[in-house]
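hey m, so remember when u said the tokens were messed up on ur end? i reran from scratch. heres the input so u can diff it against urs
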Amino acid sequence: MICLWTAFSVLGALQTYSDNLRAGLSSHYPALLATWFVEYAVPLIVLSCLLSIALTRWPGLLARPRNVAAMFAGLVLLFQPAQWTWMAWQRDLLQVTSLEDAWQLLLKMLLVGWFSTTGTFAAILAFFYWRQSKERELAWQRSQTDMLNLRLALEEQRMLALRAQLEPHFLFNALNAISALVRSEDKHLALQGIGRLSELLRYVLSASSGDSATVAAELRFVQDYLALQRLRHGERLRVHVEGAGELLGRVACPPLLLQPLVENALRHDLDCSEGPSDIHLSFVQERDALLVRVTNPARGDASANPGAGLGLANTRDRLRLMHPEAALSAGRQGGRFVAEVRLPLAQQA
């Protein structure tokens, strides 16, 4: 602040010095500079300090227009006369012997420093208004960041809850397959099933500890899962896979995405009929998304499998948490039940 008004004094003294040279008057620049600084800069520095201290200590002064009007009235009624008196004393103009002399002095000093004083007042107010605006903006940004962090923490906790729900569900169904093999009294198949289950659980533990997997890895896991189920169902289990290519290795998805869809198809196909299954698993790129479809016959006359019923609802929630454009739709289409997952290709693994 002092530097600003010192620069103002330097320019003002330079202008006076230039005017004196053009008028043929002798002048001394250092003396002019000292005069400008004492007469003009000192009152404005005092004004700036007083306003800054007041607005820093009581920022609420700017909250109401009447407070600003009261400060401006104080400027006009108190500070401005004090500034005029100061300047008149510096110029040795206080020898007033009559009312006429006082009136002439008032007229002479009326416009002296008026624009610089009101300009300083307006600049200080503008600076503090700007600072308060920035503080409000930063406070709003902090509140938004805090809300975002809280929402993220809640979403992470929900994701953990969904995983904790899914893993026992998978284990329950896999153990059902093993128990069916044990009841068949075929020890060889039962041991193969236990080995398959061990490999599947190893993937479940590793994949569920991360936030995402690739569709290719999920497809391999599903094929291992189907191999376990095939020990139980034999040649009745038939699954046709279409569109598996290199793209699947570059598209991310939630861990354990495909297995609940295939399991749902098994429950509503093999477990509800005596004939072979007719399950189709396809991967189709459609513009900016990968569509994953799992379909099976919609048997209206078959009784539903009394499974836990967690797969589709859980998968839909996990997709929404991973990406706002990822989605799962499921329902009858013609004579088949279709579960379709839409994965944005922007979700690269």
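this time it looks ok to me. The two ends are 56 Å apart (CA to CA). if urs says something different then somethings off w ur setup not the seq
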